[in-house]
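New to this. Please check this record:
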Amino acid sequence: MELRTGVSKQDIREQIWDYMESRNLADFPRPVHHRIPNFKSKKTLLVPTPRLRTGLFNKITPPPGATKDVLRKCATSQGVRNYSTPVGLDSRVLVDLVVVGSVAVSEKGWRIGKGEGYADLEYAMMVSMGAVSPETPVVTIVHDCQVIDIPEALLEDHDLTVDYILTPTRVVATGCERPKPTGILWSKISGEVMGKIPVLQSLRHREKQAGKDVTLRDEPRRLLGASSQQPARLTAVRGPRDPPLPEPCPAQGEDGPTGTVCVGNLPRDARVSELKRALRELGVVPQRLTWQGPRGRALLHYQAPASAQQAVSHLQGLRLGAATVTVSLARRRRASDLPGGRVQEPQPDCRPAVADL
């Protein structure tokens, strides 16, 4: 199809959507406006979590003996909820092929998405965690009418390009020479976006510790990693000043989930303010913090076990000073160990002195 001259990215999107809707060309979703039109042989399928709210990837695992209808459902948002498991940042997963949706694409490999930037960001996050390399092929599957000429002036540094275009009638090897994103361009990301994507907060903290520039687009108007709401005030409970060596965190027990997270292997010179700052940057501020720095650990108390589990995931790989901390769910004290047989949340086994920090 031919485009009008002097168009913007949004003009191109609207023309493609109007054309496909008027000719009933899209398979699903319907209506096609503001969506990626859709038109899968024993391969492991990783899909981005919806809007990256709970992580980056989910691994689809179809049920045994799944029919074609079930396999088709596995690739939908409902299938992600019913037939997938999360893949963490430390999974060391390697992606062999990236399939990305497009509203429009050119034979030169330049693509336009639906305008929210998630595909570009997902690819950049995969680069940052080492899941893809410049040699990893990127493919898009579109209808023939979506293959158009795109003015190069519309492209930006963070835009993802494609190596192959698959349509119902042909396969196009683009031979695209424009470089793909080499990582996350933090200067393109706002604090508002950071607040909505916890996994992005974790990646930013890691890159900051590695010495990279992670300044956000609106950094001068915001505190580092802060949301629009005032951060919670933390009260630390100081423990005794000995023994000098770090003590291990208590192991997670079998008495049910707990809302307490144990952060261990803290260096002797660690300060509670460093840990509080890291918690705010990662978006996992607890209701209460029990500081046992001289014992090499701290307890983070959350209202719900799910919040504690999320904190464990986001704090993996956290470094304070020269040490990588250990993170685990703290164990509930067993009923047999307590008077009256009641189960309680983990308590510091020292006489605390409370201080506002």
The first strand starts at residue 45 and ends at 48. Residues 142 and 167 are 5 Å apart (CA to CA).
